[in-house]
Amino acid sequence: MAQEHVEPTAPLVVAGMLGGYVTGRVTKKRPLAGVVLAAAGVAAGMRWYRNSGPGTTALLSTIYIGAFGASHPLAKKIGAWPSVLVSTAAAAGAAWVLNDTK
């Protein structure tokens, strides 16, 4: 029996979080950064749902949004770039473990 192909999502998480941050920093337009974050999140969410079902989708969506939210207060303690990198790694790592390695 052939193994099903799981569409990777960790790269989408990285694109959303890092891409959103860089977009906001370069353009100085936070709403545009939000569009990048949301578009990648929706794309990842659709893959999570197809690959892993609604429960994992809800969990990974919560982690994605939570990591984004946590990056803001964390930035006050460790700086913007380290905060973005840590929160992105956490969210992408969760996507890789819970979805991408199936």
The domain tally reads 1
What separation lies between the terminal Cα atoms?
A: 16 Å
What's the overall geometry?
globular
Radius of gyration: 14 Å
User: By helix and strand content, what is the structural category?
Assistant: mainly alpha
Helix content: over 70%
Q: Note the main sheet.
A: none
Q: Low-confidence runs (pLDDT<50, min 5 residues)? A: none
- Helix run count: 3
| Secondary-structure element series | HHH
Secondary structure: number of strands:
0
Mean pLDDT: 96
How much strand content do the residues show? under 5%
Transmembrane segments: 31-49, 80-98
Keywords: Membrane, Transmembrane, Transmembrane helix
Structural write-up:
- This protein is mostly helical and 102 residues long.
- It has one domain (10-21, 38-100).
- Helix content is 86%, strand content 0%.
- Helix 1 crosses helix 2, helix 1 (10-27) runs antiparallel to helix 3 and helix 2 (30-78) packs across helix 3.
- The longest helix has 49 residues, at 30-78.
- The mean pLDDT is 96.
Give a quick set of tags describing it.
single chain; membrane; 102 residues; transmembrane helix; 0% strand; mainly alpha; transmembrane
Please sum up the structure shown.
Keywords: Membrane, Transmembrane, Transmembrane helix. The protein is mainly α and 102 residues long.
